[in-house]
Amino acid sequence: MKSKKVTFQNHAGVELAAVLELPEDEQPLGFAIFAHCFTCTKNVAAAVNICRALSRRRIAVLRFDFTGLGDSAGDFSATTFSDNVADIIAASRFLSESYSSPEILIGHSLGGAAVIHAASQISSIRAIATIAAPYHPHHAMRLFESYRQEIEDEGEAKVDIAGRTFVVRKAFLDDLEEQKPEAIIRNLSAALLIMHSPRDTVVGIENAAEIYQAARHPKNFISLDPADHLLTRKEDSQYAAEMIATWARRYLDIREEGTSFPEAIDNRVTVRTASSGFRTDMFVNGHPLVADEPIAYGGTNQGPSPYDYLLAALGACTSMTLQMYARQKSWPLETAVVRLHHEKIHAQDCADCKDPKHKIDKFEREIELFGELDSEQRQRLLEIAEKCPVHRTLHSEVKIETTLKTLLP
Asked: Which residues constitute the domain of residue 73?
């Protein structure tokens, strides 16, 4: 995946900061916008994890800071919920003019309410996903209920939210009260996915029930139990992203499986490992994959290990080679099954090894052939297995050239 820092202007000409998460070849199946939770930023853990997970599934996502928050310019105290909705529309306009019109809106908490209200003003939207969203935007007033009288009397007040101080004005409260979510939700023309945890103590799950009841089909609900409101556990945000990606694909115009990507910017295998853990994101000929190490070796076991992939490559090449040969001969090979195991052994356990003090790699390969094959055909296929290209590569002299790419200042 690739992360690009971008900026765009809202309806008032204020510059908003954003990050566009793209698949490695920059050829996504579709574009989405992520709206963060109230007083959060685009860099809140849930936003980052969800957007990057979606980009690995070939859905590009623009996550941005609402006016006056994070890296965006403007005065947060002068904004309202309606301004948040307008910021989402401005983000949509930016994508349409610079990349492609967004088809998916994703919103977390009050951002979920905002994407519902923005959807009716963005004609390209085909799918909306909400995460821990309130039914009515005025639910946000519960965060500063103790300041409400001061806001009513003085016109504004400094309120503390999650350890940070914000100025909230009466115009913000009035705007929240004026929203009419039932009519907005009932008239949505896009598919709706509602995601909520029954353990959410900030926005109760009854809000999800109200949104679901107000919406027309197509609509779906997915429980995020045992997640908390902010999806602070990485596995919860990754689960939400996987569910959104799988659900949203049915509403996107996706090319047929197996289509090549001749326009890819870089068709090499690309591998990225972050500074924490060993989870590694791989991009292979248009296909996103994940590698990791077992927990016992310091990994998180979110994917096969590098040696697992090496075994898989040998196994896949073997079974494909067997089928290719059988088809050329018109032999009745129905299925070829290959089971493999790898271990390091002392060279002294190997009769063909020159230096008994060293360790060598030992691959065990078991082949099972299904079909009405005679003994001669089976024996010949066993011989052919030794000729698969990956097998030959592992046995041949290999040269690896490594260069260090110089980063531009």
From this structure: 2-251
Residue 87 lies in a domain: yes
DSSP string of 353-408, one letter each residue: -S-TTSEEEEEEEEEEEESS--HHHHHHHHHHHTT-HHHHHHHS--------PPPP
pTM for the whole structure: 0.72
C-alpha to C-alpha distance for 386 and 393, rounded to whole angstroms: 11
For residues 260, 53, 132, 195, the Cα torsion angle rounded to the nearest 10 degrees is 50
Same domain? 57 vs 166: yes
Q: What is the CATH number of the domain that holds 149?
A: 3.40.50.1820
In terms of domains, do 246 and 169 share one?
Answer: yes
pLDDT one-digit tens code per residue, 109-150: 999 999 999 999 999 999 999 999 999 998 888 877 888 889
331 located within any domain: yes
Name the 3-class secondary structure at 91.
helix
Q: Which pair of tokens denotes residue 238?
A: 């990754």
With 0-12 / 13-18 / 19 or more C-beta atoms within 10 angstroms meaning exposed / middle / buried, residue 41 is: middle
Separation CA 379–CA 359 (nearest Å): 31
- Shortest CA distance to 308 belongs to which of 342, 349, 358, 333? 342
State the DSSP H helix or E strand holding residue 336, giving kind and residue range, or none if neither.
Answer: strand 335-346
Using DSSP's 3-state secondary structure scheme, residue 247 falls into: helix
> Using one digit for the tens of pLDDT, what is the confidence trace for 50-108?
998 899 888 999 999 999 999 999 999 999 999 999 999 999 999 999 999 999 999 99
Are 247 and 311 found together in one domain? no
Q: Which amino acid is at 367?
A: I
Q: Are residues 330 and 247 in the same domain?
A: no
Single residue among 211, 234, 251 that ends a domain in this structure: 251
Number of domains in the chain: 2
User: Quick one: pLDDT at residue 355?
Assistant: 61
3-class SS of residue 360:
strand
